[in-house]
Design brief:
Keywords: Signal. Residues 1-29 form the signal peptide. The structure is a single chain. The chain is mainly beta. It folds into four domains: 68-126, no CATH class; 134-218, Sandwich (Immunoglobulin-like); 221-315, Immunoglobulin-like (Sandwich), CATH 2.60.40; 321-517, Lipoxygenase-1 (Sandwich), CATH 2.60.60. The protein is built from five helices and 39 strands. The strands form ten sheets. Strands 25, 28, 29, 30, 32, 36 and 37 form a seven-stranded antiparallel beta sheet that branches. Strands 24-39-38-31-26-27 form a six-stranded antiparallel beta sheet. A four-stranded mixed beta sheet has the order 3-4-5-6, with no helix packed on it. The chain is elongated and about 130 Å long. Mean pLDDT is 87; it is low at 1-8 and 13-27.
Length: 523
Amino acid sequence: MRKILLCHGLRQCIFVLLMLFVITNSALAQVTIGTGEPAVEGSLLELKNLENKTGEEANANKGLGLPRVDLTDVEMLYPMFEPGYDKSVQDEAHAGLVVYNVNEDLQDGKGKGIYAWDGESWVFIGGPGKILELALSTDQLFLWENSPTGEVTLTAKKDGLAWEKSVEGDIVSTFESVTNGKVSTLSFTRSETVFGDEIYTFKLVDKPEVFTQLKVSNLNLVLSKPIIRVGSGSVDGAINSSSIVTAYGGGSANWEVFDYDRNAFNWTKEPKNVNGHLQFELGVAKATGVVRGNIQVRHLDQPEIVRTIVVEQNANYRLLPPFDYLVMEYGYVTPPSDGGKTDIDSATELMKTNVAKIDGKVVGYFYLNELIVDNKTLLVYPGDDRVSGGENPYADIPNLNTVLQGYPESSTQFEFGMSARWTDYGNSTPLTAPTKITIKVYKGGQMVIDPKNDKRFVNMLDGKEQMPVLSFESDPKDVRVRQGSDPIISKAGYRKLYTPMYKLEYDLIENTGVLIPWNSFDE
């Protein structure tokens, strides 16, 4: 039944009409709540309780209390509507709705705070957010030579939450922790010998499904050798090495060339990092003899980690291709007239492998016929060859590689030392005689005794003698001839009687080498 408002008398009816007019006009006007002042022109509703304040002046000393709502799903207008409401109608109609969410575990949300409905979902605007049960101040820590220590904080949701840690990867740092209430200070100190990355996982003891992780990187940039020796041109002057520069640790574990001596060499290919390989090529040397220049590289994750590579160019340097057997053939330059008395005594050794069983163990006349380590033959001396007047010992590279893998302290950059003395040289006794070394390298096959000369070796493959993949002669070098007062040989003092001739610097990783002069046993 409808109810009808009746006016009792004219005066009462006029009053009712005036009130309705005032209320209607007020509903259509801009509104200020808190004072009697009008709202600013662009505002439908203004909240303030301090009068006569304009511009950027504070016009209130109280705030707006948003409705505190327990949201449950960022894609639902609940509890505004019960589950199953018509989303096609209500979602878009309520765009702009603002609430303060009190549910820290809001599904797909960011915890407590102010959310606005954008017509499709609740958007986090601000507030404390989700309070994690276990949180780190960072997820990655870089340590390096100029920053050997670092700290990270681990914060639990409340006091008394016990946590435990585990570590995966290289042990590149030591760890200590101090806990004060909710916060634990984690201190890390870099290792000076082990570089790379490790992952720390921190878990709550009572809730192991709650965890957080920290990556600790001990950064370093390591050069495998202090000097790169090259010749000239596309073969002897070209470097393509994955072992010369190694970056450890970090997000990229990588390096770059950032400077080099542009005027030191004729660069036919400028130095750069190509997929972890240092690549460059030098043309004709700018001077005779040795020419030196530098290449500077740096770590991409910490540009202050800089290393300088020395490049040494000599037109006489020869680079060797990958090989399995290295033959070092000692011999005269010009055959002497001796009636078959010419006799060179060679001494061949490995140096700088960092393995005591290997370094300095000489094969040669009056020394070892074979250097055998861990049942593997590394160097072989064929015997005193008076037929050819020379000697051709060889090195077995696959065996050497196998043995060195068993010694963690071993170096992948080492040398073959070649020295010699003439015991007899023709019918005369000169102080020195010109001597050369012929380098021959073989890939595959097998080294066997030469059927024509049992004091020499040849390489056989499928029953046929195989030619070397590279063969070249060194420059002549004057080698001492034994004088009448010299002992025939001295096991302890051959370096006093022999002449150092050449060294072959060998890179085990690249399986390549370079022949360089050996001027002194002290080098």
